[in-house]
Amino acid sequence: MSEMRATPVVNWTAIFKDALIAALIAVGLFALLIGLKTDQTLNNQMVLVPRPGLFGTIVALVFFGRLFLGYLNAVRSSEVKKKKPSSALMIKVEKYGLPVLIGFLVVYPLVVLGTVGPQGALKWIDNFGVQILIYIMLGWGLNIVVGLAGLLDLGYVAFYAVGAYSYALFATSEPIKEFMAQLIGEGFWQAWAFWICLPVAGILAAFWGVLLGFPVLRLRGDYLAIVTLAFGEIIRLVLINWVEFSNGYAGISSIPRPSFFGVPFNATENGFAAKFGIEFSPIHRTIFLFYVILALALLTAAVSMRLRRLPVGRAWEALREDEIACRSLGINTVNTKLTAFAIGAMFGGFAGAFFAARQGFISPESFVFLESAQILAIVVLGGMGSLVGVVIASVLLVGGVEILRELDFLKMYFGDNFDPAQYRMLIFGICMVLMMLWKPRGLISTREPSVFLKEKKAVSSDLVKEGHG
Amino acid sequence: MVAANEKEISAEAGVKKSRVKTGENGWEAFSSTMEVFVQQLINGVTLGAVYGLIAIGYTMVFGIIGMVNFAHGDVFMISAFVALIVFMAVTAFLGMGAGVIFLALMLALLISMVVTALYSWTIERVAYRKLRGSFRLAPLISAIGMSILLMNFVQVSQGARNKPIPPIMRDTIHLFERNGFQVAISYKQVMIIVVTALLLGIFWYVVQKTPLGRAQRACEQDAKMAALLGINVDRTIAVTFIMGAALAAVAGTMFLTYYGVVHFSDGFVPGVKAFTAAVLGGIGSLPGAVLGGLLIGLIETFWSAYFSIDYKDVAAFSILAIVLIFMPQGLLGKPEVEKV
């Protein structure tokens, strides 16, 4: 067949015209918003600063980008198209990725400690390790709601906030501290607060999940999304305005840090370092936090993997594919959705409690809508329902942002005012749109049925719309 | 999310709140609440006009392709920025005379409508068109991405600070005065109400009487059938996005002149409120969107004046949740039948 392959026919005039139109549109879009910058002078006068250079560069980029894309499309369309059923590599990644990943994560802090020493390791374990793991856990938690049950939840951060605030409020509460001091002994609450409050935070978050979920779960997909967004915002606004309860904008500070099961991480005689006969270093706490969040995240993964095989998990997946069919087969859709919502919320609550303990300070600013969108972006980019996909997306998005902070050398090219970190949300937005256009089902989009009778019969469901598998 | 202009609004309403508390006994109290009521009614209708204009964009797009255009609030914010830049450019060249301000406002309105329409068209073309007929959450997620993208694009290109315009049209018309409380309507408010009414009239004519409007209504009822009858569905949808954005641009320009300041995150909360208005009026229904906008505007102003300014957004979000849960078809909408 190789002789049959014609040389690609590239219609340059059409491509050129197309690129020219794109450039003209770019002129219309950016002439005012990029070409002119509103600035304030020292005496608060607003002035316009023209930026012809930047504007020209961007229009030129659009023009040549479109030209290149047009050429690429022309070449590709003249080749014989081969439709791949689904990426075999990605399925392999999904299958073998998790054990490899867990092994890597378990040794990660020790490897880092060994290679860069305790000073440099703090950044790598805290900023990259713990930060990414929090998002992996949140992603896995939301994955139960969005990926398995197909309920788009735009207010997931509300449950994260419930978890964080319940830990923060309980742990800093004087009455509980005194009561515990009388009941068990001085210092008990300081040492054990995290371990007692962690399940409480999860239960409270699950309770809120049921409370908020019950009235809204009969709504259709996009309405559900908007209502969950509204609930998320309401919780945040209440936290801001109900100052007596949550201390408003100022937030809650000096939240007790987690202890090593009762042994605090400090330089005293009863501290962790002294007890184990090693030299005190603040890195111990960070490494311990890393393992705590790793354990919590793995718990989330294990629970969601096991639940998928239970009747309720199968009902979730069926519900995601076709709600009407589920109802006609006698599945109680409200209860099924509610369990997904509550379990997802519970893991959000765990992550929130951990977040509060790790930061030592929380305020409503940490629980804005963008945070929900970020977690959702991780789940969506990773591939809804895929555990490994969430990990890849978290590493790319959260780790990528951390790396942006490190790119100081770019200042050499773009001037001293250039701050790569301010582009992170912009890149986030672009990623979300491109991902939907390129692969609406995410990086790893298998949607293989978890259970089947004897053999898989139907075509892989990622080839068809839901309800047609 | 809370921009300084919100603080300004709260300061404004705070003055009114203290005025409410001045006369608190007997007939005097009643008659003074009467004036406060009229004043709040005027403020509420002004705010409602802005929400109604944005809500039309949500309701039209939802009616025709059944998606929540999450980025519409940010399109509104972009329009306010375009209006700001045009206004500043014109006044920078021609000074700040009374005639110049009028000219600058008109130019800002027109250019903002054109540029915003171009934005909305591009967004539809780039981020939504390919996803029509994809799985049901894909367009919504793409729209959320677009919303984040637009917000941060403006932040990066124009800076993260509040952008004020010089105070303009500060004069007010005193309607009547009783017990030391003046009921006044500012020229800004008159302008907002008049322009909104005018544009709604034009818009109503286009949708009801022109071939374009007929095509739109046909696509809304049954896109496939409309296509079979020779209507270019893609173009009709694009025009819908353009019209919605042009009306949002009117709202954006009005927002800028009314509050005198704009911030890159200002699209989110007005966007959600306008969506609430669209849902309250019955999504898909154009008169419903205007009615819903007015109701939300009135509820918000009265809530701020009589109950609590801090919880006004909570009130708006709660209305959204309550309406969606108990009355998803809204006031003027048609009940929806779920099809297999």
Structure description:
The complex is a heterodimer of chains A (469) and B (340). Chain A has 469 residues and is mainly alpha-helical. Chain A has 2 domains: 12-78; 96-406 and 439-463, no CATH class. In chain A, 68% of the residues lie in helices and 2% in strands. Chain A has 17 helices and 2 strands. Chain A has helices spanning 12-33, 52-78, 88-148, 156-171, 174-183, 188-216, 221-241, 243-246, 272-275, 283-309, 311-321, 323-328, 333-359, 369-382, 387-406, 411-414, 424-438, and strands at residues 36-40, 46-50. Chain A has a two-stranded antiparallel sheet with strand order 1-2. In chain A, a hairpin with a 5-residue loop joins β1 and β2 (46-50). Chain A is globular, with a radius of gyration of 26 Å. Chain A starts with 11 loop residues before the first helix and ends in a 31-residue tail after the last helix. Mean pLDDT of chain A is 80; it is low at 463-469. Chain B is mostly helical and 340 residues long. Chain B has a two-stranded antiparallel ribbon with strand order 1-4. In chain B, α2 packs antiparallel against α9, α3 (72-94) packs parallel to α5 (138-158) and α6 crosses α7. Mean pLDDT of chain B is 83; it is low at 1-25. Chains A and B meet through α1, β1, β2, α7 and α14 of A and α3, α4, α5, β1 and α10 of B.
